[in-house]
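TL;DR need structure tokens for one chain.
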Amino acid sequence: MFDKAKLDALRAKYTGAKETEIAPAEFRKALSLVFGENYRRAMPFAGVSTLLDLPYRPEAADLPDFGDLGVTNRAGARFGPRAVRDVERIGPYNHALGVAPRSECKAADIGDVPLRSRFSLDNSIEDIAAFYARIHKAGIKPISVGGDHSITYPILQALGHDRPVGLVHIDAHCDTMGEIDGSKFHHGGPFRQAVLAGVLDPERTIQIGIRGPAEVFWGFSYESGMTVLHIEDVDRLGIAHVVEKARSVVGDGPTYISFDVDGLDPAYAPGTGTPESGGLTPREAQAILHGLTGIDIVGSDVVEIAPRYDPTSNTAMVGAQMLFELFCLTVLGPGFKKRPS
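>> reply
TL;DR here they are.
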């Protein structure tokens, strides 16, 4: 029989109580983000959709510590940022890492990069680089949403301008191809261009989950000194050793994380332009990211979400979750100035 004294104590504590007042102390910050000052949760179908319900500040007049940026380049993935912003129920608390990142920093969704023309890829690359140079100068650690993987090159141009950065790259493809159809700016070659521009250190670069028939194009990865872990290597080594390898490759220097959703098996992320069977599960990807806690993250992105190929919205949901993981990792990085309690 249930103990009456215990029942009376539970009734005294919980009847009519607010979670923000009675929850364990480590959860109260996260609950306050959910319910606000008036203890009313925002309706998911109302207002402007932003990533993690962050404040919407497209003008970025007072730049925050973080930015969620969407870039339009190619058909399909151009709608990825909008789909991610529409996802609900991501965060605010990360139980695996024990952090509610929005409570630890000043953050906002600052909208899409303004592009001069939707038709000129070269101009778009220049516009992205200029935009990120501005926010990097302001001390922002950007978390970006693609768009296709071509966006990562101009981002690295800005973040690696003063010192080449390291890279943790989760993907099905190495993306170190050369010129295609007269253009060196495409989603299959951003990391070759970044190395040649002197903004990415190939010897501090690790590529995880690589697979598929396009390996014949990736000689640059091997010759430049990148560490390439095929999906078979992940299976053979196990997640713990993959994490250990990644940490040893990037070391304690500034590091960028780029997450292509086609690194996941298309069973979990069908909404992408170049799916490759036999990929990572979301749980494996999260475990890899969680293992990177403490590295010096200067920026990150999730790319290649093409919602038109996934009517279930699962791809956008898993993409939003990976963005949240990256947000948490950045807050937990060395030297990050947390908001006072």
